Amino acid sequence: MIPRLKPPLGLHELLAAWSLLPRHSVARFEAAFAERMGQQHAVAFPYGRTGLVALLKALGLHGKEIICPAYTCVVVPHAIVTSGNTPVFVDSESGGFNMDLGAAQAAVTDNTAAVIATSIFGYPVDLDALAAFQAAHPQVTVIQDCAHSFDAAWQGRPVQREGMAAIFGLNVSKLLCSIFGGMVSLDDKKLHEKLLQEREAMLSGPGLGKGLRRLAYVNAAWPAFWGPVYGLVNRLERSGRLNRHVQYYDEARIDMPADYLVAMTQVEARVGLANLKRYPRTLRLRQEAAAHYFDHLESRPECVLPPQVQGATYSHFTVLVDEREVLLEAALDRGVQLGQLIEYNIPEMSAYGSGPADVFPRSAGYSRRSVNLPVWGGEQVAAKVLKRLEDLLPVR
Ligand SMILES: Cc1ncc(COP(=O)(O)O)c(C=O)c1O
Q1: Best of 50, 75, 160, 313 to mutate for ligand 1, by most ligand atoms within 8 A of CB?
Q2: What is the mean pLDDT of residues 58-84?
Q3: Strands (E), 284-346
Q4: What is the pTM of this model?
Q5: How far apart are CA 256 and CA 77, in angstroms?
Q6: Which residues on adjacent β-strands are paired with residue 77?
Q7: Is residue 46 pLDDT above 80, yes or no?
Q8: Per the domain annotation, does 150 fall within a domain?
């Protein structure tokens, strides 16, 4: 079975998790992360969403409108609500998955305090359009959501650096992984101090229990993604028996994980530190896989290829198909698990008022038609995927 994702974790990360001696691993991870992202500071959190809640609080925002994409990970508006603010959704841009920044301008009101510019699937936010937004609305704080992009670059400019701060998620599905975890990177000294204070006030210490659970997790993650074992895991997943463990949202509820206020563990930080060294290779594999798909697939109305963009990190390679369920099932029968992230249009979810699909037509369309091809294994795995699926995808 070729899994839809495989965490970028290897022997180094496993050894790092077990090397119990190094101290201050969280602070060292923060420093190394900030340096890698070309920023003055980075602050670690148990999840990216916790970082967003803390950041909005550190910015002093409460009872405000925060503009965010309709087509993003649902935990983002959940974090906005948790921070005491209101998400205002904006549709995707024409021909791309990122938020339409022109429409975002139209959504600004007297109560708008921030905009979350997301580089979804690793596609860099159009920084020129974002600069136009800022020029028109200088009172609105720009927060970059780099959970999928890490250091994706718009025409050579890394996106994470153009805004007040950037948030990152570091779970096993991301380009950079610390088992779980999140990071906020920023340059502003005062905001950094406020963010540290906010973290101190919000989070409790992780304790030994959480550290041991994370250690167990990283040990289990290793064999779990090995082909034959993953085949078994996938059979359990298809039978619905793993739903409780793999479903990260409930359509009807705005909630956060039980441990979202428990600080990042030293184990996670050590894994993250080791994983930072692997990042160039992780990125190269994804970009090579994407290049292979672009070279060997043809865009057709029933299977539309994503845009090819310089500087994209391709956390996902997302095609739009007419018969998603049929394709997913047929691919599984051929030993390939395809992903379906993001398979919802947030304003349509009952937690956000079950709005009609036609208000955000692009987001609604993507949510129904998107399928992700595996990118974790570079060109080699991409070639295998296309070989197995040549009768299902428009292979040249
Ligand atoms: C686009 C996006 N933003 C933010 C996050 C938040 O990250 P976390 O899951 O660590 O809270 C995610 C999570 O997957 C995401 O996909």
Answers
A1: 75
A2: 98
A3: 303-304, 317-321
A4: 0.96
A5: 11
A6: none
A7: yes
A8: yes
- Interatomic CA distance for residues 122 and 147, integer angstroms: 8
Domain that residue 96 falls in: 11-202
Looking at the structure of the chain, the number of domains it has is: 1
Whether residue 189 lies inside any domain: the answer is yes
Q: Average pLDDT in the 58-86 region?
A: 98
Q: Which residues line ligand 1 (CB under 6 A)?
A: 47-49, 72-73, 75-76, 118, 145, 147-148, 169, 171, 182
Beta-carbon neighbour count of residue 233 at 10 Å? 18
| pLDDT tens digits for range 81-110 | 999 999 999 999 999 999 999 999 999 999
Between the CA of 255 and the centroid of ligand 1 the distance, in Å, is 14
Where is 130: in which H helix or E strand? helix 127-136
Reference 23, options 216, 273, 198, 193; nearest CA is: 273
- Residue 242 pLDDT grade (very low, low, confident, very high; cuts 50, 70, 90): low
pLDDT in tens, 187-228: 999 999 999 999 999 999 999 999 999 999 999 887 887 777
Complete DSSP assignment for 174-217: SSS--SSBEEEEE--HHHHHHHHHHHHHHPBP-HHHHHHHHHHH
Cα gap 172→179, rounded to integer Å:
6
CATH number of the domain where residue 106 is located: 3.40.640.10
Distance (angstroms) between ligand 1 centre and the Cα of 357 equals 23
